[in-house]
Design a protein that fits this description.
The chain is α/β, with parallel strands linked by helices and 351 residues long. The protein has helices spanning 5-8, 15-21, 39-47, 61-70, 88-94, 111-115, 141-147, 150-161, 166-176, 182-193, 204-215, 217-231, 245-258, 291-296, 318-330, 338-350; strands at residues 29-32, 53-58, 78-82, 100-106, 232-242, 279-281, 304-310. The structure holds S-adenosylmethionine (SAM). S-adenosylmethionine binds next to helix 3 and strand 2.
């Protein structure tokens, strides 16, 4: 088996930048929506000690097992859940874990998942065309590849892979079906495009597209981001690390929209949308890894971190505001920053 060291462990990306962006404080309450190997979670727990709490979520049961082993020393400070982050709000409700000081999404796959041939994520490792994050999902990449029409396949590959040769690839796939394994699909894509061009493997975009389709990645991300905002306490931080342009665009658009008081189309004479900002962009600039980090961990090269801060209550009914204010002030771990608590009280009194 050809596995290098970085494939055997997942090296977390932009760790210092993440902890800083989340403004991690002792006694704070955090959610890591993409636990993976637990690297970011460990850094958050270190900085939020004493008294910090972390809810870790991952759709992949194997990731939750691995992270659980890595984080076992944190005992009662952690709660690890095997679920999809599309269920974020329901999970927090079930475990009474809200409001929180910070929420992290470190999107995509871990090196462990990529290295595991049996999962079908990599075009370099032989394996079944699976690509499901969780074995409980019904549809696999093989189902999509072998059962979709040529038009549907071309659409998936163009939309989620931003692949210019989507129609040629779809035609070739349909000619070569059934395709059950990763290496066979990689070969078919390579043939459709006419061999290798440049440094990037020709199957890169097709594999990305299938993974996004199998796991409903963009729909789930959009839904989870909106849920995350409603779980953040006043001044709480939302941090997202993305690895490809479709994800980053979705995050950027979401944060921009939620940081605007009016989202009426340009030219509307007076505001009719009724929208109000729920986030403030902490940094307009996207944060990327330094040259030394990219050298030490080449997988980090495409990472983009965006951060925003919760500014008002989305549900501003007096009852909801009171609940939020009460639970922040009285939570066991506490909302330790007196400045934030004061600002929260002022908001409560003003509403
Ligand atoms: C890049 S890794 C996270 C690595 C982690 N931050 C660390 O420090 O080790 C992404 C993780 O998110 C998980 N994931 C991706 N989409 C998910 C979703 N919709 N719900 C829950 N987990 C998801 C993957 O299973 C994977 O383990």
């Amino acid at each position: 088996m050809n596995r290098n060291m970085s494939a055997l462990t997942h090296i977390p990306v932009l760790v210092e930048e993440t902890v800083k962006a989340l403004a991690v404080q002792p006694g704070g309450r955090y959610i890591d929506c993409t636990l993976g190997g637990g690297g970011h979670a460990a850094a958050i727990l270190e900085r939020s000690s004493p008294g910090g709490q972390l809810l870790g979520i991952d759709a992949d049961p194997a990731a939750v097992r691995v992270a659980g082993e890595c984080l076992q020393d944190y005992g009662d400070s952690i709660l690890l859940i095997n679920d999809n982050f599309v269920n974020l709000q329901a999970i927090c409700l079930r475990y009474d874990f809200q409001p929180v000081h910070g929420i992290l999404f470190d999107l995509g796959l871990s090196s462990l998942q990529l290295a595991e041939g049996g999962r079908g994520f990599s075009f370099q490792e032989e394996g079944p065309l699976d690509m499901r994050l969780s074995p409980e999902q019904e549809i696999t990449a093989a189902d999509i590849v072998n059962q979709s029409s040529e038009g549907e396949l071309a659409d998936i590959i163009r939309r989620y892979g931003e692949e210019g040769f989507s129609r040629q690839i779809a035609r070739r796939i349909v000619q070569e079906r059934p395709i059950e394994t990763t290496l066979k699909l990689a070969k078919v894509v390579e043939q459709a495009i006419g061999g290798r061009k440049g440094k990037i493997h020709p199957a890169t975009k097709t594999f990305q597209a299938l993974r996004i389709a199998v796991n409903h990645e963009l729909e789930n991300l959009e839904s989870a981001l909106a849920q995350a905002v409603s779980l953040l306490g006043f001044g709480g931080r939302l941090v997202v690390i993305s690895y490809h342009s479709l994800e980053d665009r979705a995050v950027k658009q979401f944060m921009r929209q939620e940081s605007r008081h009016c989202i009426c189309p340009i030219g509307t004479p007076s505001c009719v949308c009724g929208h109000s900002a729920s986030l403030r962009l902490v940094s307009r600039r996207v944060i990327t890894p330094s040259a030394p980090e990219i050298k030490a961990n080449p997988r980090s090269r495409s990472a983009k971190l965006r951060v925003a801060e919760r500014i008002v209550f989305q549900d501003s009914s007096a009852e909801a505001t009171e609940r939020l204010c009460f639970s922040l002030a009285d939570s066991a771990s506490g909302w330790r920053s007196p400045v934030l608590l004061e600002r929260l009280r002022l908001t409560f009194l003003a509403s």
